[in-house]
Amino acid sequence: MGEITQLLDRARHGDPAARERFFASVYAELDQLARRKIGRPGRFTMLDAPGLVHEVYLRIAQQSDLPGNDRRSFLAYASRVMRSVIIDYVRSRRAERHGGDCDLVTLNTGIAGQSFQEPDLLALGDAMESLQRVDERAHWVVEMRYFGGMEIEEIAEFLSISPATVKRDWQKARAFLLQAIQPNLDLA
């Protein structure tokens, strides 16, 4: 049993010092996951990797019991929380941009066809929920690959399936998500 798994086990049994050491031990990995997701310049303007990691920490630390039985399962869960934080952030930004609770005022800028859209992560979040209902394993493959930054071989080991099956699920899930996000797209 690895050191992180031991710390997680001790933290789950109420050892506050182990809980602190556990989070300190996985911080670098959480930061790396966050940078993979939002480290691309211009993708988000106000959310950065350390901010995402801290928000994930706050959400997980509020739980009385730490999720997961080992490092990998904890990181898979953390990647799911990251997705949730990012989607909540985009929803909040979109609500602010559209005035929140303020009265709506129309502004004609005269700029025809100008688009100021962030990546449509809300549609992706909805599509991910649909995928989970249809094919839970493919959903987990996307969670771990796209949001968790895990490699095909790591996912295969975690899910106890072959790398070829992970690749097929990844392709199938990508097609499903693309169709869900852009329903008028002809994939034939």
From TrEMBL:
<dbReference type="Pfam" id="PF07638">
    <property type="entry name" value="Sigma70_ECF"/>
</dbReference>
<dbReference type="GO" id="GO:0006352">
    <property type="term" value="P:DNA-templated transcription initiation"/>
</dbReference>
<keyword id="KW-0804">Transcription</keyword>
<dbReference type="GO" id="GO:0016987">
    <property type="term" value="F:sigma factor activity"/>
</dbReference>
<dbReference type="InterPro" id="IPR013324">
    <property type="entry name" value="RNA_pol_sigma_r3/r4-like"/>
</dbReference>
<keyword id="KW-0805">Transcription regulation</keyword>
<dbReference type="InterPro" id="IPR011517">
    <property type="entry name" value="RNA_pol_sigma70_ECF-like"/>
</dbReference>
<dbReference type="InterPro" id="IPR036388">
    <property type="entry name" value="WH-like_DNA-bd_sf"/>
</dbReference>
<feature type="domain" description="RNA polymerase sigma-70 ECF-like HTH">
    <location>
        <begin position="1"/>
        <end position="180"/>
    </location>
</feature>
<dbReference type="InterPro" id="IPR013325">
    <property type="entry name" value="RNA_pol_sigma_r2"/>
</dbReference>
<dbReference type="InterPro" id="IPR014284">
    <property type="entry name" value="RNA_pol_sigma-70_dom"/>
</dbReference>
<comment type="similarity">
    <text>Belongs to the sigma-70 factor family. ECF subfamily.</text>
</comment>
<dbReference type="InterPro" id="IPR039425">
    <property type="entry name" value="RNA_pol_sigma-70-like"/>
</dbReference>
<protein>
    <submittedName>
        <fullName>RNA polymerase sigma factor (TIGR02999 family)</fullName>
    </submittedName>
</protein>
<keyword id="KW-0731">Sigma factor</keyword>
<dbReference type="InterPro" id="IPR053812">
    <property type="entry name" value="HTH_Sigma70_ECF-like"/>
</dbReference>
